[in-house]
Amino acid sequence: MTTTIAAKPATSAYAGQASLQQQRARAAFWFLAPMLVMLIAVAAWPLFRSIMFSFTNASADTIFNGQAEWVGFDNYLRIQTLDSGAIRWRGVLADEDWWNAVWNTVRFAVVSVFFETVLGLLVALVLNAEFKGRGLVRAAILIPWAIPTIVSAKMWAWMLNDQFGIINDMLLTLGIIDQRIAFTSQPDTAMMAVLVVDIWKTTPFMALLMLAGLQMISRDMYEAAKLDGIHPVKVFFRVTLPLLKPALMVAVIFRLLDALRIFDLIYVLTPKSDATMTMSVISYQNLRDFGKYGVGSAQSTILFLIIAVFVALYIWLGKVDLTGEGRK
Amino acid sequence: MTAQTVFWNIMFYIGVVLIVVIAIFPFYYAVLTSFESGTAIFRVNYLPESFDLKNYIAVFSGRNFIRSIANSVFIASTTVIAALFLAVTAAYALARVRFRGRGLLLLTILAVSMFPQIAVLAGLFELINFLGLFNTPFALILSYTIFTLPFTVWLLTTFMRELPVEIEEAAIVDGATPWVIITQVFMPLLWPALVTTGLLAFIGAWNEFLFALSFVSEETQRTVPVAIALLSGASEQEIPWGPIMAASVIVTVPLIALVLIFQRKIVAGLTAGGVKG
User: Fold this and answer.
1) Strands in chain B per DSSP E
2) Which of A4, A28, A49, A227 would be a feasible disulfide site paired with B123, CB 3.0-4.6 Å?
3) What is the pLDDT of chain A when averaged over all its residues?
């Protein structure tokens, strides 16, 4: 690594430049190689193998010894003829539980991201104003973000407890409810409980992203609007929001993708509840609890495809500059 | 000041107080509960009433909890150091060298960090079993690379783009190779970015749950999130809320301290990457 460009006699300026460019490109290749090898080993290969498993009848007994048999698309969809001659559709795509999980996941993702965006924007607007103790507030909202998801799930599970929970106590005292509610186990409130915890935990992240976007907007713009006597609400919709849109779009897509794969919060807060069963959770159950590697992999592959299509559409339709290359 | 502005000022401060209270309350309540035991824990109270260390003693005397903390520290730090090591050179190539397919490569790396972890679970399980790593910390170090590596590459690329071109040009004129530019010129400038990136990746690895739950079955090999999630009482029905809250407080306090100390760096990192840590 001691060869230097200056040591080479540059016959012409052009040749010198070309070799420099070549040298840099070659270096770039070797700089990227270790990372790429690693990513292929831990991401691409396992993904490929998982997809392959989804076409087999692999179980906990056969997954490692190669005795799993190729079954084609049977895990996804197949026709079964019963003894009585009746025809039944089987497989993940004909499975009610799976569609319930798909619906739960989509509902969770849309509702949580909607509230996180609106509330995050509100918090960001507050933090963008100048007032005493702003630093303190910013520090405070980092706390939910810093708490591990599992820990926040447990903290909220305790607060939402049906017999001893403080939230039941609050609502009873305020007269909003007249009897204690088992928020995390009742089917009609379980999803709400999950949403509340996720929104509580992730709104700070959204707020910080949007605050960064807000701080890029020049103050002169607001001064000018103020001098012209334009109502602040109108300024918000006509100036702030359009200028914030790029930052907002990136934040929303990252959050949506994250919400679609949710696992840990639900696994701990509302275990075994059909009302909150998501695609990741049902797939995990098949894989690790029931040892049905074929079916579980089929489910995780469908989730992967949904997210992949979603990302491709988003990039293609929105022309979102996710890489930030254009920002330079 | 008109009555209207006074009114709006009051509303504004009510909003501020509300934000702070909502953000802090669950943690405050966990701390409160962690110091209560016996029947005190089942009485709802909003202000501290007792200071009982029984829960903390219970958590620490179960010797697996300390082991879990040690596991988490070892796994998260090893993962982060390995990822940073691989990411620095890769980020230089992605941020500073023009080559064909760079944009596509960046998108692919981003996509890897966003795709659902469950989609690789079966394949990764096979790989870990093949390498004989099941039930060891290295199973988790290997699998955590799947999200820490793309994340660190992504963030460091963003930071490296910001470094002035003039410094690099001067180094090239002086005859520095890319390797020398990275190690001698950029590294000293990148320290703050490395701290930010490392910290965010550490928090991500520390909090990970799915892989930790899947690739480790023995109690002594568990990481903190799994240990807390599976903390159980004497019977199935009895959930030991006191010790759970004490354990939660123990693992959260260092994180909150880190976040508050490095507040500015973390906010800079989050907004630069736009990726959840």
Assistant:
1) none
2) A49
3) 86
Q: For residue B273, count CB atoms less than 10 angstroms from its CB and return exposed for 0-12, middle for 13-18, buried for 19 or more.
A: buried
> What helix, strand, coil percent values describe chain A, rounded to 5?
70, 5, 25
> Per-residue confidence at A6, pLDDT binned at 50, 70, 90?
very low
- How would residue B115 be classed by pLDDT, with cut points 50, 70 and 90? confident
Average pLDDT value over all residues in chain B:
88
For residue B213, the tally of other CB atoms under 10 A from its CB is 22
Instruction: Inform me whether the pLDDT recorded for B82 exceeds 60.
Output: yes
Residue A327: pLDDT band with limits 50, 70, 90: very low
Q: Closest approach of chain A CAs to the CA of B210, in angstroms?
A: 7
Residues B150 and B201: beta-carbon distance below 8 Å: no
Count of all residues that appear for chain B in the document: 277
Can you read off the two tokens belonging to residue A297?
Answer: 């992999």
Which of the pair, B115 or B242, is modelled with greater confidence? B242
Which residue of B16, B94, B260, B263 to mutate against A (max A Cβ within 10 Å)? Answer: B16
pLDDT band at A4 (very low <50, low <70, confident <90, very high): very low
Residue A49, CA atoms < 13 Å, CB-side half-sphere = 24
* Chain A nearest-CA residue for B125: A46
Q: Do B143 and A287 touch (CB under 8 A)?
A: no
- Closest C-alpha to A152, from B81, B249, B267: B249
Q: A1, A4, A35, A209: best mutation site toward chain B, by most B Cβ within 10 Å?
A: A35
Residue B208 has φ and ψ, to the nearest 5°, of -60, 140
User: Inter-chain contact A34–B89, Cβ cutoff 8 Å?
Assistant: yes
**Cross-chain Cβ contact B20/A140 below 8 Å:** yes
User: Is A319 in a helix, a strand, or coil?
Assistant: coil
CA distance B159 to B155: 6
The CA distance from A284 to B128, in Å, is 17
**Residue A144 Cα distances to A126, A199, A261, B12, B255, angstroms:** 18, 10, 20, 22, 11
Closest chain B CA to residue A131: B13
Chain B residue nearest residue A153, CA to CA: B229
Out of A43, A158, A163, the one facing B112 most closely (by C-beta) is A43
- In this prediction, residue A318 has a pLDDT band, given cuts at 50, 70 and 90, of low
Q: What is the pLDDT of residue A124?
A: 93
Interval A234-253: pLDDT, tens: 888 888 888 888 888 888 88
Query: Phi and psi of A59, rounded to 5°?
Result: -130, 180
Residue-wise burial string across A42-60, b where 16 or more C-beta atoms lie within 10 A, e elsewhere:
bbebbbebbbbbbbbbbee
Nearest residue of B to residue A63, measured between CA atoms = B126
* Facing residue for B225 by CB, picked from A150, A202, A212: A150
Reduced to 3 states (helix: H, G, I; strand: E, B; else coil), residue A89 is strand
